[in-house]
Amino acid sequence: MSFNCRFAPSPTGPLHIGGVRTALFNWLLAKKNKGKYFLRIEDTDKERSKDEFKKQIISSLAWLGIEHDGEEYIQSKNISKHIAVAENLLKKGFAYKCYCSEEEINEQKEKCKKKGLPYVYNRKWRDAKELKIPGNVQPVVRFKSKISGNTIIKDLVQGQRNISNSTVEDFIILRKDSTPTYQLSATVDDHEMKITHVIRGDDHMINSFKQKQIYDAMEWEVPYFAHIPLIHSEQGKKLSKRDNASTLEDYIKIGIIADALRNYLLRLGWSYKDKEIFTKQESIDLFDLNGVGKSPSKLDLSRIYSINEKYIKTIDEKDLFNFFKEYVSKYKKPIDKSKEAILLKSMVFLKNKAKTLEDIWNNSQYIINDKIEIGSEDEKLIDDLSKKVIKDFIAQYEKISSLSRENLELVIKSLIDKYKTNFKGVGQPLRIALVGSRFGPGLYDVILSLDKAEVIKRLNKI
Question: Mean pLDDT throughout 426-437?
């Protein structure tokens, strides 16, 4: 059989991390089965939809390596088709016009609230033949949900699920201004796009029951549904947009690499034996909905950092530099062309003390900035003895004809012996003079990465 999957975000805000995982699972299922993965922008909420968010969704998914087939499908361009289907449902008797005023609806809601019951529309206009149509009320169109029996969904993750039709209200499919609602638009678009598998969060289960009734009424083939558990915060609560690191942009900003984040999201609710790290191709080859759990997954930021650290340490230095360059140009400041060669050369050691691209940024400031500023706490550590150590180091360093780690170690050892101290006693003042802090990359790496004249210039400033 053919596999057509889709991800259908609304451009009303930054892309939520739960939505990103949904996109990933849809993309993987399609690619695993030689199918198609489509991106549908559900922009029918004109007040909240923004073009900037649409662009961000498209670019963010591309950054993550989740590339859709064909052009983006823009839902608002298909509104005439949605309305035509609603009119068809009216004609076939599966929908009706409801003339209840807002006051009536609010009154019904208040009565339900007082009784401690959830609001369900009372179906006043469902079979109304003798009711007088008010002249001052624009009607909505409601779908005529089944009253008896059950609606059954054979979910590919949750197993068979059913709901008593008596609990499903006659939901609105066209608003008073004749614009279609989500339930109608999503169903029509999935049918038009020939979607075979709908993977989405399990908070959409009630939507699937409603949409299945529309499929049945239109005598359309119903797609397979797969409802994946939601992602919870580290505190075990439903992840909201107010939580830290709840959007894809949050992870990009702190310097998480695309491959690492994709790997983490893959393992967030899906497993394959005890394997932890997957290449992109392995993800495609091994992904299966049978491996998706039924319980919510808890976000673990420490795990994301750990996976990202592994990727940074094992990635090719040239690729890492390109990722770093792209990152800083967007979130920090563009790198001076004159610094690129030394930064590329330095990636081999900068990555060893980094969990994120931001760590590399922080640890490479001594390269990026010509002017080194020493913090007040570090400045206190430079006493008269430290200045003598630095002066002696310069004298020996200038005589080295062939710079190497081994030759530098000999110089440092001679100073340790001369001043009867340890590595810290010699290395700390040198590091402060060279990078502005007693913390950062290894001393030998710093000295070897800088031009010899630059090393001497910085040391002479102390």
Answer: 95
DSSP tag of 180 = B
In this predicted structure, the answer to whether residue 238 has a pLDDT above a threshold of 80 is no
Which tens digit of pLDDT belongs to each residue from 304-320? Answer: 999 999 999 999 999 99
Cβ-in-10-Å burial (0-12, 13-18, 19+) of 227 comes to: buried
Q: Per 3-state DSSP, what percentage of the chain is helix, strand, and coil (rounded to 5)?
A: 50, 10, 35
Q: How many residues does the chain have?
A: 462
Q: How large is the C-alpha radius of gyration of the chain?
A: 31
Q: Helix crossing, 452-460 with 423-435: angle to 10°?
A: 100
Token pair for 284: 């495609």
**What's the rounded Cα separation, in Å, for the pair 405 and 390?**
18
Cα–Cα distance for residue pair 167/136, rounded to 1 Å: 31
d(CA 390, CA 412): 11
Tell me the C-alpha distance between 446 and 305, whole Å. Answer: 25
Say how many Å lie between the first and final Cα of the chain, rounded: 73
- Residue given tokens 């993750």 in the structure block: 157
The pLDDT of residue 462: 86
Residues 6+ apart with CB under 8 A from 201: 18, 22, 227, 228, 229, 230
Provide CB contacts within 8 A for 127, sequence distance 6+: 96
Domains of the chain from N-terminus onward: 78-228 (3.40.50.620), 376-460 (1.10.10.350)
Q: Tell me the pTM.
A: 0.90
